Amino acid sequence: MQEASRDFKSECFFEYHLYTLDSRTTIKDNQTKQLTLMAASEVPVAKQLIYYGAQDYYRTSYGMPMFNQKVGVYLDLKNSEENRLGVPLPKGKIRVYKADGSGSQQFIGEDWIDHTPKDEKVRIKMGDAFDVVGERTQKEWRKIGGNVYEVEWEISLRNHKKEDQTVTVIEPVPGDWQVLTSTHTWEKPEAHTLKFSIPVAKQGASKLVYRVRLRF
After folding, report:
1. Percentage with pLDDT > 70 across the chain
2. Would you call 106 helix, strand, or coil by DSSP?
């Protein structure tokens, strides 16, 4: 396995990092040139399929279903030496390649990352899934009294791939809220975040239905 190859030398300087090019390069008059800061192969990553909601979904009554909503594809990795990285990463563009069936490296996506110290985690958005889609239907929205509301959502996830998939559903729930009913186990990772992990069988579908009570 190849360690990260670096064309630049990193140096700590006050609260910054300086990157010095080790080798010589040339540039023509009025030319713009891009140089690769570093490259690493076979970096372990965890692929995530994430279906995001929005706070507005709980404040408004929706009469029509939201069809073919996108499911985002993300790669999570740790900037560590054991993952063949382990150097301070400056803010910039990161490109990802994957070997195809013949072993040729194919470009699969790119994203911009923030300044990332050694041993911190990085999440890269690779785009949207082609074969996994979501659909959202508001089954009920009603005012209980004062600033108290009850909202029920049905989320359908369809997987057209030939392998089973797990889709993480992230719902940003505003106000003071509680889950009244749910077809799936849920988590509360943050004060205003409702999270589900929904298994979806290959060439199949899954349906999540949950109901929340909110006070604004």
Report:
1. 93
2. strand
